[in-house]
Amino acid sequence: MATSKAAWPPGAAARPSGRAKPRTARGRAQRTVELLAVEYPGDVRELVALQFKGAFQLLVATILSAQTTDERVNLVTPQVFARYPTPADLAGADRGELEELIRSTGFFRSKTTSLIGMARGLVDRFGGEVPASMDDLVTLPGVGRKTANVVLSVALDTPGLPVDTHVGRLTRRLGLTTETDPVKVERDVCALVPPSEWGRLSLRLILHGRRVCVARRPRCEACVLSFFCPSSTLPLR
Questions:
Q1: Rounded Cα distance, 106 and 110, in Å
Q2: Positive/negative CA dihedral, 41, 143, 70, 162
Q3: Is 198 within 8 Å of 161 (Cβ atoms)?
Q4: Distance between CA atoms of 69 and 135, rounded to whole angstroms?
Q5: What is the mean pLDDT of the chain?
Q6: Which residues are catalytic?
Q7: Per 3-state DSSP, what percentage of the chain is helix, strand, and coil (rounded to 5)?
Q8: Domain 54-144 sits in CATH 1.10.340.30
Q9: Considering only CA atoms, which of 80, 72, 32 is closest in space to residue 49?
Q10: Which one, 44, 144, 194, 208, has least CB within 10 Å?
Q11: Which pTM does this prediction carry?
């Protein structure tokens, strides 16, 4: 769910010196944080591709981003935000009108249910404000841990590590976890990385997973992490 203003291809920016191979999961996590920060510089708001202003808009955009591209969401959200600028406006939305606005994102009926339910939850239980805690966010319709972590880490300056398919795949390949359940992946990786890095690491792993460490044919020859990655297809040195 991200794009970057970083130099491309990987390696275009100066990389930290030293090629010593970390031997532990914690060491691999630390090197991953360091090297991906060079490959994809910037803070969370620069790394995330969804266009938004404030936590409410990001929450709407993230719900819409399920099973579609960030580019598609960014084409739709200006009209959505203009028509429903506040949680109260969205809570009172006409269902048919909202469905038409978001139809091109796919699954528009279930997304409409989630958006209206989420907005009503904000109005009825949180005074129209997006709550800044995981426990509260996941009580809202359409909001799971991944969405909550996106909003926390990007819009609310609160540590959170969203785990999508890219993050899960890369952290397993790097030997940072053996888990497949996103909640367990989150737990394992968060134990290895300082909270201040959780959000940025997630977004950088997503970028790296889209551009280099792709699912079917990982481009190990172009990967800055390949010299210590346990899953690298390159000859060991």
A1: 9
A2: positive
A3: yes
A4: 27
A5: 92
A6: 146, 164
A7: 55, 0, 45
A8: yes
A9: 72
A10: 194
A11: 0.87
pLDDT the model gives residue 237: 53
Give domain limits for the chain. Answer: 54-144
Task: Determine the 3-state secondary structure of 48 from DSSP.
Answer: strand
Asked if 143 and 117 count as a contact pair (C-beta separation under 8 A), the reply is: no
Q: Are 6 and 13 in contact (CB under 8 A)?
A: yes
8: pLDDT strictly greater than 70: no
pLDDT at 16: 45
| Calpha distance 89→45 (Å, rounded) | 26
- On whether the CB atoms of residues 31 and 228 are closer than 8 A, the answer is yes
Alpha carbon 183 to chain centroid, angstroms: 14
Strand runs labelled E in 95-230: none
Phi, psi angles (nearest 5°) of residue 181: -75, 125
Give the Cα separation of 109 and 98 in Å (integer). Answer: 9
Quick: pLDDT tens for 14-43.
Answer: 444 457 789 899 999 999 999 999 999 999
Mean pLDDT, residues 78-93: 98
24 burial class (0-12, 13-18, 19+ CB within 10 angstroms)? exposed
Stretch 43-70: mean pLDDT: 95
Residue whose C-alpha is closest to residue 44's, from 191, 160, 194, 213: 160
C-beta separation of 102 from 80 below 8 A: yes
Q: Is 158 left (phi over 0), alpha (psi -120 to 50) or beta?
A: beta
pLDDT, one tens digit per residue, over 178-198 is 999 999 999 999 999 999 999
